[in-house]
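User: Okay, second chain of the day. Same drill as before: sequence in, structure tokens out.
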Amino acid sequence: MTDNPDIPESKDTPPTAGPSHEAAGGTAKAEAVSQPEPDPKGPYNIAQVIGEAAERDPDQLAVLSPVPDCLGRDRITFGELDRDSGILAGKLRNDLGLDPGERVLVMLRPGPDFYVVAFALFKAGLVPVMVDPGMGLRRMLECLSEGKPSALIGIKRAHLLSLLFPGYFRRIKTRVTMGRRLFWGGATLSGLMADSTATPLEPEGTLGTDTAAVLFTSGATGPPKGVVYTHSMFGAQVRAIRDNFCHEPGGRELVTFPLFGLFTPALGLTSVIADMDPVRPGKADPNKIIETIRQERITSLFASPALLHRLSEHLLGSPGRLEGVKVVISAGAPAQPSLIAGISSMLDEGARLFTPYGATEAMPLTLVDQEGIAKARGMTEQGFGMCVGSPLPHCHIRVIGISEGPINSFSEKDVLPQGEVGELVACGPMVAENYFDLPEATALTMVLGPNGRPWRRMGDVGWRDIRGHLWFCGRKSQRVVTKNATLFTVPCESIFLNHPQVRRAALVGVGEKGSMLPVMVIEPMKRLSSAKWDTFVTELLALAKANPRTRQIKTFLQRQNFPLDIRHNAKISREKLASWARTELSMKDMAATEFYKN
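Assistant: Same drill. Structure tokens below.
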């Protein structure tokens, strides 16, 4: 694919499908668009949203869990969440002596106590540091060390880990154990919460610009980095989700990803914790998910494409449906239009399925629903990328020239024309401006924009169509630069995903940028013998030759079980596949050399 794809006229491009815009199947929410952007420098604490929800309906269920927490509760109301988080905030500040701004490592399982602890920390002006346990022990330990926490609130296993690897936890001075404490000392959550007459602490008088949390990226395409979330950034994200994702007050959301689950009570929704391993959504039991949706009257669902695929496969050809679900949000990786169409057919009439674009550092930025995706499907399958809609209110996105090094600033004259693929940069109140204690990484990813504000380089490539809709073409670092052209992952892979026997496809480059050999790694629906693979490659070559974006691709490799990201089980680790492809091709060359020698 070249940097300037052959773009059809605007009549072929899909309309934006976000509910706060003129939308396919929906009308504009004028009040959402016209609201002024909040001042991030004023007084604000994200924990205020819990107090507001408690005032509206203190008896509404805030959290429901399939297993009891360390205090023996499997549910908690908004009134109880507001009260208990206030009591714990006071204990952390007054009894344990933690000061506003101190970082606290949180290592808990999803449940009522997780939400109590999270909002207690926000109320106390303390900064939770949260890391995915599924990223692997070594990476997790490095992240824990980089977060520089002075306190640890965690399950017994977390405290044991800190004793087994003391070097990574050397700054920990204060400990709180969830459950029974063993020999490591410190407080217990049950002990801190024993005095039910304690006066709850009101939310600390933080500013919107104060750090609220440090959340680590998954490390799917590089080392995990701690993203600095401010209170105003959290608030902007809550407003964006509330105003644009059609959630109804009093609804119930099935929480399949704990970090995103922090937004659910902030939206005034009941968080129903899914009975699944949150770091392995691709292995979730669809029967349990569907039964929970039915029994608990779930109205909204956040799920990675991997989990949606599990549900789709299970429901395919069966009489079951996702009854009662009015909103589905798919995020974490691009979702194929065929998957979106399949899940949409299993929803009630009038339900909305959204696929927002964003990242840990900036979300949500754009929005499109199933109708917009359906209208874009033809172009996606022709290799134009994934349509992810248009920017949400107060969010600005530009496409600029691709650069590997730092960029100090850019102006509107540096913005690429419509239809030209380039690097995506974003600015808005939901965009993080810093990585924690990583000035070089921050400098590399932030650039001063035409409005005099810092813009984030998303690390992604894409293009804008004539209507201003954004089309996602993949990660910048994963593009394949040959002697003649630049090939982008998502557009090229879409061509081969049209084949009914292709489960996954991944474009990788072997060699140095500028002279790379483009290799398409294919995961068939089932493993093919050598003879059948040769026949299959003939079909793939025909597909490649028929599209100008893929004519350079003449090398195909078969592989089962692609390496996927840990957080969502949906992003393909093309870096690992590129290394594997290099070795595989080397071995084939060596085998061919030996054959001709003999």
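The chain has 18 helices and 27 strands.

User: Thanks, on to the next one.
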